[in-house]
Amino acid sequence: MIEFYIVIIGMIAMLSLLVFEVERPEIILPSTLLLFVMTGVITPQEAIRGFSNEGMLTIGLLFIIAGSIQNSGIVDHAFKKLLNRSTSRKHMLAKLLFPISFLSAFLNNTPIVIAFTPLVKKWCEDHHLAPSKFLIPISYATILGGTITIIGTSTNLVVHGLLLDSNLPGFTFFELGKIGVPITLIGLCYLIFFSSSLLPERGGTVNIESLREFTGEVLILDDFSYIQKTVEQARLRSLKGLFLVSIIREDETITPVSNTTLLKAHDRLVFTGDITTITELQSHKGLLLQSNGGSSFPKHHQLTEAVVSHHSSLLYKKIKDTNFRSRFNAAVIAVHRQNQRLKYKIGDIILKPGDILLLATGTDFYKKANTNDFYIAATLEKTMMTRKQTWNGWFSVGLLGTMILLVTLGYISMLTGMAFVTMLLLSLRIASPLQAKNAIQWNVLMVVSCSFGIGYAMIHSGVAAFLADLLMHASKPFGLFAVIMAIYLLTNVFTEMMTNSAAAVLMFPIILEVSNTLDLNPTALAVTVTIAASASFATPIGYQTNLIVYGPGGYRFKDFLKVGIPLNILTMITTVLLVYYFWL
Fold first, then answer.
1. Residue 34 has pLDDT above 90, yes or no
2. Higher-confidence residue: 372 or 538?
3. Residue 407 half-sphere exposure, CB side, CA atoms within 13 Å?
């Protein structure tokens, strides 16, 4: 009985930490798992079983294959051509959403949204349209498309692995498509015909005019006492509410500025932060205030907008404690949270998931920036595709298509097919070991693997049976249809509070108990949980693609509610009806 209370308390603590974003999920879940091992709720062997689960291993290999296709640039190139041929809002939505949802059925949707967000923003600027009318539909289309195949999202593969782990038949490659195709078609029609009237006419969070209130410029005169001294010696790092972004020296722009940078006469110092305090610099002899919130940002800089990811190593740390400048060759100009600029001293801001950073970046920022840290939402310079890149991209697509065909026909298992394709990509040097390592989202694998052990703890302690009993008592009097609806709703609530894969894993032991008690087909309930865990439309924090478009679209929280809740209802009703029809 003590194990029951340990798991209940541990689960409540875990959910609370996730909801209030006290730490990253890849730290919270392993800590919870360690608690259950130390208290004897599960054995060490059970705790690490998730790390060898077929679904988890398949996800890791899929990251490499999808990354190879994405890195080739053929997808970006194709959609640039598609955008150039679009002329009107609905025409563009129709031409864009259908291929994007199809692509998401086979590739990880996060890099798809990261790639298309700047492309669509640029297209909107060129055609004098608001990006806010397009970016949420793109995010939703990738979520819907991910429900069509077993490899559409990591959640699909996780539940597939859980079924196999429980000695049950897993999903076939297109089994989820019985639900995924109808909800995608219904969802896309809803987005094409109704989203424009529901979404605001709003631009992104960053524009040059808004930068003017964030920046100020100071000129170093000949009588400044710290000429040929370092920035640190001149005490320009300890100014209240201000941060030295860059130094303009004749035709050269030094950014980011290090503590050891030497100051010279006639240098122009560009500060950011609370510019109302910049007049304090005038008390330093030899410094002449050039502007007070009235000058535009120096044109030499490359401006980048980046969203802090759910899995960033920067989370819950002060900017000044992250070695940001030296680590990324970039300086933070402003931080927006929930579409509002934070007016604290920039170095003291503690970063959270979804924070939008306005950065002045050096030329090598994109090489240094880890995609696990940021979702980059800035328009990059136009790049040319080489013939080798094109060939590698199409070869990767061909390998993936062949693997899908062989898995669908039953000749090989999913894991075997993924492993073979990955081996070919590496041996033919289409993907390098470094690219493969960078493509794998290790934090996702950590969360998924630990979720398995937490699921075992729920089963062994009786918590899963207890929750299943509560769910059945609440919904069974209203019929089997209500039971499926309750499972869908509970999963949907969980997925808004944590990662979608973790929500699916935590719901799995509950649906096993329900299927055993009511003598139902476990696949039916597994499909329900799989779809519900991915169908997160009502908030920007429920799914990472929503978070990516949150800032660039200039959205507010209520915008997701307005467009997402009707789509959530449509998806739920369609899913429950089709699960009842196909499996029960």
1. yes
2. 538
3. 25
The b/e string for 208-217 (b: 16+ C-beta within 10 A; e otherwise) is eeebbebbbb
Q: What is the pLDDT of residue 363?
A: 62
In this predicted model, which residue has the larger pLDDT, 385 or 68? 68
Report DSSP letters for 188-228, one per residue: HHHHHHHHHHHS-----S--HHHHGGGEEEEEEPTT-TTTT
**Exposed/middle/buried for residue 340 (C-beta within 10 Å: 0-12, 13-18, 19+):** exposed
* Cα 361 off chain centre by: 22
- Closest by alpha carbon to 195, among 285, 97, 66, 107? 97
Q: Which residues contact 285 (CB under 8 A, 6 or more apart)?
A: 223, 224, 225
Strand partners, 271: 216, 244
Mean pLDDT of the 193-204 span: 81
* Max mean pLDDT range (99-103, 234-238, 389-393): 99-103
Q: Which residues contact 47 (CB under 8 A, 6 or more apart)?
A: 33, 34, 36, 37, 453, 456
* CA torsion through residues 209, 215, 216, 219, sign: negative
Q: Cα–Cα distance between 161 and 38 in angstroms, integer? A: 26
Q: Which residue has the tokens 């809002």?
A: 89
The average pLDDT across 47-67 equals 84
- Residue appearing with tokens 């194990």: 3
What is the C-alpha to C-alpha distance for residues 323 and 245, in angstroms, rounded to an integer? 14
Q: What are the residues whose beta carbons fall under 8 Å from the beta carbon of 45, sequence distance 6 or more?
A: none
CA distances, 162 to each of 25, 236, 378, 453, 519 (Å): 20, 56, 38, 11, 19
Q: Which of 196, 236, 233 is nearest to 216 (CA)?
A: 236
What does the DSSP 8-state code read for residue 422? Answer: H
Q: Which residues contact 278 (CB under 8 A, 6 or more apart)?
A: 216, 218, 242, 271, 289, 292
- State the residue for tokens 């999920």: 25
If we measure between CA atoms, which residue out of 520, 437, 442 comes closest to residue 475? 520
pLDDT > 90 fraction of the chain, expressed in percent and rounded: 22
Structure tokens, 240: 């209240």
Across the chain, what does the average pLDDT equal?
Answer: 82
- The residue ranking higher by pLDDT, 552 or 258, is 258
Cis peptide before 256 (omega within 30 of 0): yes
Q: Whose CA is closest to 116, among 554, 437, 553?
A: 553
Which has the higher per-residue pLDDT, 127 or 366? 127
Give the pLDDT band (50/70/90) at residue 360. Answer: confident
Region of residue 465 (left: phi > 0; alpha: psi -120 to 50; beta: else): alpha
Let me know: does 117 contact 548? Beta carbons within 8 Å: yes
Residues 149-168 have pLDDT tens digits of 998 888 898 898 889 888 89
Q: Would you state the pLDDT for residue 187?
A: 96
Asked if residues 22 and 444 have their Cβ atoms less than 8 Å apart, the reply is no
CA distance 116 to 375: 12
Exposure string over 458-487, b if 16+ CB within 10 A, otherwise e = bbbbbbbbbbbeebbeebeeeeeeebbbbb
Among 106-120, 136-150, 354-368, 524-538, the minimum mean pLDDT is found in 354-368
Whether 544 contacts 534, CB under 8 Å:
no
pLDDT at 273 over 60: yes
